[in-house]
Design a protein that fits this description.
Blueprint (H helix, E strand, L loop, with lengths): L1 H11 L4 E4 L12 E7 L2 H13 L4 E7 L2 H14 L5 E4 L9 H6 L10 H4 L3 H7 L9 E2 L1 E10 H7 L7 H13 L3 E3 L11 H12 L5 H6 L10 H13 L12 H9 L3 E7 L3 H4 L9 E4 L12 E5 L2 E4 L6 H12 L1 H11 L2 E2 L13 H8 L3 E2 L9 H16 L4 H15 L1
Length: 420
C-alpha cells in the first residue's frame, strides 16, 4: 500500500506487427538513429514524434506488436540473438519474461543508476524498476489500473447504472442481456486478457483485506487453493453463467473485444484503463469513457482497485546507440514526456508532471488510492513468470470446461512452489 500511495502522490503532483520510421526523411548517420520496440503503438508513437521534434536530425525506427504475448516472445528471442532494438517497453517488477527483474537477472538491461532521474526515484519506485542486484534498469512511465471501464453513451442508452456491489453486478448482467446488449466484452483469445477479471476480483477478496498474502505464500503458510482466490474464480464463472460476457470469449481476441466495446455493442469491459485508446479506434466520434471500481463483495466499501506502475522502458545492454537511448530515457522521465505518454495511453504519470490533468478514467483511481482502497497487481510480487503463465493458460482452459477451479489453483500453487 505504501508504494501505491507514493505513486499517487507523484501522479497528483502533477495480432499484427507493424514497423515504421520516424518523421525524418533521407539518410541519417548511425549516431542519429535509435531503434525502439513497444507493445501497443499509440502512446509510443506520440512519444517518438515529440522526441524527434525536440531533437532535429534524429530518426527513431520503431517496431510495434499489438499482442503482449507475441511481443514478449519476440523481444526475448531478439535479445537472445543480439538483434533487439536499443530501447523497448517492459513490465515493472517481476511476473513475466519481459519484466524488469527477469530481464535484469539475465543481464539484458543497461544500468541506468547514474541518470539524474534515477537518483530521484523513491524506494518504492526503485523496487519495480531495479534488477536483483539493486541497479535501476528501467524508467517508470505510467501508473495503470484495472476496473470497470464504460462506454458512456452505450450505458446511458441502456438506462442501466454502474454496479457498486457484487449482487448489483449480477443483476446488471441479467438486465443488460434482457435488453439485447453485451454487459462486458471479453476477449480471452488474447491470453493476457484472461488475468484482468481475476485481478479485479482478488483485489477486494484477497490482497486488499490481506496485503501480506503473497509473502505468506513465500513463507509456506498460504496457498492459492486455500484462499479467496477460489471464490474469485468461482465468481468469474458465475459471471459467465449470468450472461455477463459475449458468447465464446476464448474465440474473441483483444482487437475484437475493443471493437465491440468502442462501438457500444458492449456496455463495458473489466480492463486496464489504457485499453480505451484501442476502443477509440472503433468508436463513433464523440464517444466518451469512464471508470468505476469493479466490486466483488456485498459492500461498496469493500471494493479495492488494482493499481500499479504500468509501463516502463529499458535500454538494451548491447544497444547500438547507447547515448541516444539514454537521451530518450531522459525524455520519458521528464515532466513533458510523462504527461504526454500518460495522456496518450489513458493512464496517469508515474513521475511528477504538474501539467497532467486527471479525467473521468483516472480520477476514480486516484480517489481509491487516497482512500487506501488500492492494491498492487499480484503478479508483480510472484517469484517468477511461471505462475502468471500457468494462470493465463488455465483460465482459457477453465472457460473451455477442460479444467475446474480447484485444478487451476493447484496448478498455480505448484508453479509458485517451484519458483519460490
Amino acid at each position: 500500500m505504501k508504494m501505491i500511495k507514493t505513486l499517487a502522490c507523484l501522479a497528483l503532483a502533477a495480432t499484427a506487427c507493424s514497423t515504421s520510421g520516424g518523421g525524418t526523411t533521407g539518410a541519417a548517420s548511425s549516431d542519429q538513429v535509435l531503434t525502439l520496440a513497444a507493445a501497443g503503438q499509440g502512446p509510443a508513437k506520440a512519444a517518438v514524434a515529440a522526441f524527434e521534434k525536440a531533437n532535429p536530425g534524429v530518426t527513431v525506427k520503431t517496431s510495434f506488436t499489438e499482442d503482449d504475448a507475441s511481443y514478449q516472445q519476440q523481444l526475448r528471442t531478439q535479445l537472445a540473438s543480439g538483434t533487439a532494438p536499443d530501447v523497448f517497453r517492459m513490465w515493472p517488477g517481476g511476473g513475466n519474461t519481459m519484466a524488469v527483474r527477469d530481464l535484469g537477472e539475465d543481464g539484458m538491461l543497461m544500468d541506468l543508476s547514474g541518470e539524474g532521474w534515477a537518483g530521484g526515484l523513491s524506494a518504492d519506485l526503485k523496487s519495480v524498476t531495479s534488477d536483483p542486484s539493486g541497479k535501476v534498469v528501467a524508467v517508470p512511465v505510467t501508473i495503470g489500473a484495472i476496473g470497470a471501464v464504460w462506454n458512456d453513451q452505450a450505458l446511458r442508452a441502456s438506462g442501466l447504472s454502474k454496479p457498486t456491489t457484487w449482487p448489483e453486478v449480477l443483476r446488471f448482467c441479467e438486465d443488460a442481456k434482457a435488453k439485447g446488449v453485451v454487459p462486458f466484452a471479453l476477449g480471452l483469445k488474447s491470453a493476457w486478457v484472461t488475468q484482468l477479471v481475476p485481478y479485479a476480483l482478488t483485489a477486494s477478496l484477497v490482497y486488499g483485506p490481506d496485503p501480506g498474502f503473497t509473502q505468506r505464500q513465500k513463507d509456506g503458510t498460504a496457498t492459492f487453493a486455500g484462499s479467496q482466490w477460489k471464490q474469485a474464480l468461482e465468481k468469474y464463472l458465475r459471471m459467465r453463467e449470468k450472461g455477463c460476457f459475449n458468447d465464446s470469449p476464448n474465440g474473441v481476441g483483444y482487437d475484437e473485444q475493443m471493437q465491440m466495446f468502442g462501438q457500444g455493442k458492449a456496455l463495458g469491459v473489466v480492463h486496464v484503463l489504457s485499453a480505451v485508446q484501442s476502443a477509440l479506434e472503433f468508436a463513433p466520434k464523440g464517444t466518451t469513457f469512464s471508470m468505476s471500481p469493479f466490486p466483488a463483495t456485498d459492500s461498496a466499501d469493500g471494493t479495492y482497485v488494482p493499481v500499479s506502475v504500468g509501463i516502463v522502458y529499458g535500454v538494451n545492454a548491447k544497444a547500438k546507440n547507447p547515448a541516444l537511448a539514454r537521451k530518450f530515457m531522459q525524455f520519458l522521465a521528464s515532466p513533458e514526456g510523462q504527461a504526454l505518454y500518460a495522456t496518450a495511453s489513458g493512464s496517469s504519470p508515474a513521475l511528477s508532471s504538474p501539467s497532467f490533468k486527471a479525467d473521468a478514467l483516472q480520477q476514480p483511481v486516484l480517489d481509491a488510492v487516497e482512500a487506501g482502497r488500492s492494491t498492487l497487481y499480484p503478479d508483480q510480487a510472484w517469484p517468477n513468470p511461471k505462475v502468471q503463465q500457468e494462470h493465463l493458460t488455465s483460465i482459457q482452459e477453465l472457460f473451455n470446461g477442460t479444467v475446474d477451479v480447484p485444478a487451476v489453483l493447484a496448478r498455480m500453487d505448484k508453479a509458485f512452489g517451484a519458483a519460490n
